[in-house]
Amino acid sequence: MQATGIVIVAATLDASSERIVNYLNDRGLAINVLFFQVFDHGESQLLSRAWLIDPGDVQVQAASTGRRGEKEPWNGEF
Q1: Bridge-partner residues for 45, per DSSP?
Q2: What is the phi/psi pair of residue 29, to 5°?
Q3: In what order do the strands lie in the sheet with 6-10?
Q4: DSSP-derived secondary structure letter, 52
Q5: How far apart are CA 73 and CA 18, in angstroms?
Q6: Strand, coil or helix: what is 59?
Q7: Cβ 33 vs Cβ 8: under 8 Å
Q8: Whole-angstrom distance, CA of residue 47 vs CA of residue 5
Q9: pLDDT single digits (tens) 4-31
Q10: Using alpha carbons only, how large is the chain's radius of gyration in Å?
């Protein structure tokens, strides 16, 4: 059985929502926030992304909490 995760995509996140995400992650729910920003550079646009919590840490936390010793298989992503 493969665990699924939750990714919230946002430009910003208020402090209350950040606390909720961290609380759920600490209890083994694979949840994270991905922030996107767009920057203009001359005639081009650049897209920046940043995670609230390191994705590797989220997987480790979810695999080690509340799953009766089972570990989630590595999906090959860094």
Answers
A1: 40
A2: -85, 125
A3: 6-10, 31-41, 44-51
A4: S
A5: 27
A6: helix
A7: yes
A8: 24
A9: 689 999 999 999 999 999 999 988 889 9
A10: 15
Q: What is the mean pLDDT of residues 47-62?
A: 87
Per the structure block, which two tokens stand in for 1? Answer: 């059985």
Question: Which among 46, 29, 39, 37 is positioned nearest to 9, based on CA atoms?
Answer: 37
Residue 32: partners with Cβ closer than 8 Å, 6 or more residues away: 5, 6, 7, 8, 21, 25, 51, 52, 53, 55, 58
Domain ranges of the chain: 6-64
CA dist 68 and 58 (Å) reads: 17
Considering the entire predicted model, what is its pTM? 0.67
Among the listed residues 3, 7, 1, the one whose alpha carbon sits nearest the alpha carbon of residue 55: 7
